[in-house]
Amino acid sequence: MLIATDKYTAPYFRNHQGQLDDINDPFNAYITTAEVIAVPAALMVAGYKRQDDYQVQTAILCGEAYANSAIVDLAMKAVTRRKRPIDVPVNGSFNDTFFAGGQSPFRGSSFPSGHAAGVFSVATVVAERYHNHRWVPWLAYSFAAVISFSRVTTSAHFASDVFLGAALGYTATKYTVLQPR
């Protein structure tokens, strides 16, 4: 359903990008990547400093979850090679964006969103491990949703890319990393 509506939502966000410039400034690709990596790094540093093994283990699980989602994300990008919304010419068609992007999964392919997969994998670990604090899951998933939505408003991804990336990050984490060992 989202893939079918991408041809309507992508032009909307492209046409209104000027109104969102100030909001999108803190959400460029490099800053959001650093923000996502900062969460497990902060958990690791604080865990070692406080000698909290649970917190250190949470940071390690975040790294494992991020890596798992990145592997699947890159494999899917290599196969789908979907154009990014920003790569479609101004009056161009948003139809037939699959199998038309760059040759490398690292550059040019947008399906699914690696940022959404990564941030939702980290958020899922944090939310599950600290679910006894009622505000932590809300904060973790809100953080993930804001970063993921910013990928749509900056025209880096279609809404379907972000949705699948979020679902990928969540499920890869929930059903592989967080399973009892």
Helix-strand layout with pairing:
Layout: H1 2-15, H2 21-24, H3 29-50, H4 53-80, H5 114-129, H6 135-153, H7 159-177
Helix pairs in contact: 1-7, 3-4, 3-5, 4-5, 4-7, 5-6, 5-7, 6-7
Mean pLDDT: 82
Could you give the order of the helices and strands? HHHHHHH
Gyration radius, to the nearest Å? 17 Å
Could you give the count of β-strands? Answer: 0
Q: Name the shape in a single word.
A: elongated
- Percent strand: under 5%
Count of helices?
7
Biggest sheet features = none
Uncertain runs with pLDDT below 50, 5 residues or more? none
State the secondary-structure class. Answer: mainly alpha
- What is the terminal-to-terminal distance? 36 Å
Residue share in helices? 55-70%
What does this structure look like?
67% of the residues lie in helices and 0% in strands. The protein has helices at residues 2-15, 21-24, 29-50, 53-80, 114-129, 135-153, 159-177. The termini are far apart. The model has no long low-confidence stretch (mean pLDDT 82).
